[in-house]
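Async update (no meeting this week)

Hi team, since we skipped the sync, here's where things stand on the single-chain job. The sequence we agreed to prioritize is pasted below, unchanged from the tracker. I ran it this morning and attached the output directly underneath so nobody has to dig for it. Comments welcome in thread, and please keep replies under the output.
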Amino acid sequence: MLTGGKNVIPHAVRDVADAAAAFSARIGPDRHFDSQKDVEEALEECCTPQNVTVIGLTGSGKSSTLDALAGEYFCSRVSSEATLIRWQYKPNPAPHTHEWVEDRFYPSDSLLNLEFWDTIGLEQPAAPQRLKHIVPKSDAVLVVISAKEGNEPAIWEYLKTLEERLHSRMVLVITHAELLPFEQLQALKEEMRSVSREHLGVQLPLYPITPAGERAGEGVEALRTCVQEVLKRSPLTDRRVERLLLATDRLLEEQGKVLNELHRLSKLDSGFLTSIDREIDRIQLQMEEEMPARLKAYAQYVQDCVPRLGKKSARQLGRFLSIRRTMILHKLPPVIDEWFYELVKSGIEERHAYYNKEFLNICQTHWNHVRPRVREQWDCDIGEFPAARLQADLEVYKERLGRSVYMPLKDFGIKPCLSKLFLDQEDVMRTELKLMLVMVILGALLGSFGEHGAGFACLGVALVLWLGSNLGLAWMQYRLSKQIVSAASEMSIAIDCGLRTPLYEAMISGLSDYRKLYADIRGQVAGGVEHLTPLLNARYDLFYKLTVQKHRFRI
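Output:
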């Protein structure tokens, strides 16, 4: 089967180029190599189809010759007398720049890396002008001469106009060989060889074939083998290989310079990074000194929220004594406790967000102070302070600290305290309601028996009880607020002890993330010896393989 394109480029050449292009990512995804694009373009060019062009007079059998090479009959079914036809198997091809070129598709994907050019007859006036855009760019040129027409001077006159460098790509093909007896065919072959030496100064390879008829296929395999050899030694293929090898050589040289520099930096004294660590340690000591003040601020905020808790709890008792209020008192402590937790949590997070801004300002100031020293020491720029990256982690610690406040509140027992106060009040309110209900019923019974004075007296007592209960309720609301504030007088201690560890962990985590920024930069600039050693070995292996291929192609 006739093949072309990347199948002609040696696998060893493409493999070393592919490996060199992929090796850039291993050195570092952010590294830029000028020759990377050249290697990728050269690889893409090596995968472009090769061109096989047939030229000759109209009716000489150009299309049949292409059919014989392809092993399928599709070219001869389309006339190429008025236009040039480009046969290819390629999805969504780019249209040709000349309007007189017609794109057609052959049905066999086995010819994916080949293009067939079926040209117009050389006797047509437009032929020389159009063929000059096609023939010089062809990897193989088949000059088709029909045995029944014999040697045509027009063909040789055209071939004499072509550059001498194209002679190595030309193959003479005699079609309709079955029409001539053996002696006449031999005589025609000798005549054509002689004319070839006379006009071109070189004897072109000559192959008679029988593309159709009872003897179809005679000589086709020999022609196919010859064309395959021409494609393999095509100067265009050699130029593609040369360009690919030279681009790969430049890329490996750039990669070697980077690896050597990284290797040099990896051997430097680590004292510079240690000095940065010491500076971050001093920042940590400074923040640890400020820790008690921050904890006191958190505890003071929680303590300031306690009066609001007392007032909200008192309001839940209601302004007037009612049966409905009495029935829901036991459900209120969890609701008030959740409200108090959300209030404290949002306040803690808000204050911690303010402290995070202070922390970011400290880190940014330190970063700007270190940046010129990094440029001097490592000969690189670490860029602007990555505040967004650090801020994302600090948001996590802020939420974690907000959740941590629930434990000291729970341990302090604010919900059990509320439950006891509300349940005690619930018993009092139920007792008062029962007494009022009894007096009302008694007054109604006495009134029904005619004892109106006694009945009105019972109703008056019930009214007095209701008014007294409401006054007592107001007094209980006041006492409840005072009891909650008194009970929570030491809550600040619980908050201080409960948030001390989470706040310290948040600070250490933030500093650890900031410290990692320098460790990441150190790794990007210098890399570790464990990381560099396999890279250096891999680059040496690629360079050795490239040297072998360059020697093979004498580049």
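Quick observations from my side:
The longest strand covers residues 50-56.
The beta strands are 50-56, 84-88, 101-105, 114-118, 140-146, 170-175, 206-208.
Reply here if anything looks off.
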